[in-house]
Every structure is written in structure tokens, then in C-alpha cells.
Fold:
Amino acid sequence: MKINRSTFITAVLIFVSMSTTSAAETINQGTKLSFSGANSTQMYSNLDFNAAGGITGIRAANFGGTDQFVSPVTYHGTSGMNGISWQGSIAGLHHNSPNSGDAGLNAVLSTGIHGPFSPPQIDITANPGSIYRVQLVVFSDFNNRQFDIFVDGNLYADEFESFDVVYGVPTHSIYSFNVTADADGIDVDLGPGSVFDSNPFVQGIMVNMLSKYTCIGFDAPLAKGPVKVNKKRALPLKMMLLDEAGNIVTEFLNDTPPVLQVLYSAHVSDTPTDVTTDALGAGMGSEGNQFELNDDGSWQYNLKTNNYTASGTYTVSVVLNSAYVLDTNCVASFVVK
Structure:
């Protein structure tokens, strides 16, 4: 969704003129990882390089610099390359330099786009309806910076902090979020925050297209709602995964099959269905947490319920490699009393 950027800029400038005190950071969408110190190796190792199609499904940009190869991707320094365009003043670091041992990564982190009076804007060409993971790379070495991050007009991060202490130890940050592209692609706007130095400053970006799958299941007996079973039995969790074209999915990037996730709640359902007669013997329970592929293309995990002893409700679902996202998950629950 395109927003009226002249209105956006006016609004954020009025906001910053009214307040100069620090406000609490709030991440409304996505996740943030921060690392202190000039060595950026740890930060870079936490970037997610999984994408649909592998490395070829990743695009990256180096704001304000030249093309730099930082294994395994190239960060392009020209606006418009790889479908990533940007506007903003170009600036270098003030007091500290990144020291990762990788010349390319140091170069990417040494310049960026910024500007309190002309907030940086990033436009990403993307397939409407497809899901992307966007990762902003930030290296801050100057003052108490806070700024807002808008995605398609929605406030994803309020008062995003990209600092440690004034003129102190520099801070690296990765801000990562998933977004579904609309007809205009993906629009990212960086607005001034409420602190005195509210000047947004971002060095790079990486865009990963994700594969979107649908989970069909779980099959009986887990399809009967909250269930209960004799503790010496195993619950067969069987499901099918389909891609966007409706094809059965049997392979995953890096050979990482689906894994089981189990969440606990102390609440106990009053009316669970007893499926003991439909369950498997405990000796048929699966080890570890990975689903196994059946000959018919389905995936199965046999959950040994004797591993769960606390009274409550256990909700099970499917988790995929980070290159994939489920638009419909398979969810079931069992009760222990």
C-alpha cells in the first residue's frame, strides 16, 4: 500500500518538534537482535539466509556505498538494482569503525542513509500476494538514536533504538519482519523518533522471498478436537503439505524436514475425546522432534504422551525451516489430567 509520503514526512516532523525526551521502544511486528562492540561478525552470523530458491532468492542493498560481496550474497550500492530503491542522505560513521575481519562487511556498515528532515524511504519490487522476510542492518556509533519504522504505512517499530551510550560502544542491530507484498510491492519509511537525536540511520537491507505452504491435517484421531489417551500410547500426527500450486511437498531446503512444536497451558478441557483405541503403542513413538516422510507423500510424527506429565492442555503444531511460511497450520491438542 502506497502512503502519501509528503503527509508522512510533515507528520513526523511535527511530532519530533513537540518532544525531545526518550520514549520506550516498542516492536509491533517482527524481531530485533542487538550486539555490542565494533566486531560485527556475531551480528552477521545471525542474519537469515534461507529463502525460496536458496541463495538466488535473496536480494541485498548497501545504502550509500559500492557493490560489496559478503558471503553468500552481494550488497548492491546502486539504487534500483535487484528491485530495491532508496532515497535519503548518505552519511558515514562518526566515531567508530566496524571491525569484522571481512572488508566487504566493514564497507557495508560504514555508510548508510539517514535524515531527520527528509526521512529515508525504501521501495522494494515484489510479487503481490507473496510473503517476504525483510532484514534491516544497522550499525550505530553516535548518540541516542531512536526512530520509527513504517511498512506499507503501518507502524512496525516505534522508537527503534540503535544505540548503546553516547560516543560509547557501537551497537549492531538486525531488525527482521515478514510482510505480504501488495500491488505496489513493499514500502519502508524511517521516521524520526522523539529523542533529541532522532535521525534514522540504516546501512543495509536483505530481502528473502519465502515459499508459502498449506498444512492439511492433522488426520484422525487428532481431528476430533481436544483428545485424551492412555499415557502408555502414542498419538499419530499425520499431515500433508501443499505448495501454492497445490502440489504435495516432500523436499525442503537444506534437507530440513518439518518439526513438531508443543505448547503447554494449565487449563484442562472438561470434555476431551478419548482416542486410546485409535492411538499407537508407546514403542512406535518417534524420537527427536522431526516429522518423517511416508510413501504417500504425507508427513508423520508419533507423539509419546508419557513424556508429558503435568496436568493441562498441550497444543501441537508444525514449524518449518525459515525459508517457508505456513498460511494455514495444522493444530491439535491433547489433555493430561
Notes: Helices lie at 5-18, 41-45, 103-110. The longest strand covers residues 131-140. Residues 5-209 form a domain with the Jelly Rolls fold (CATH 2.60.120.430).
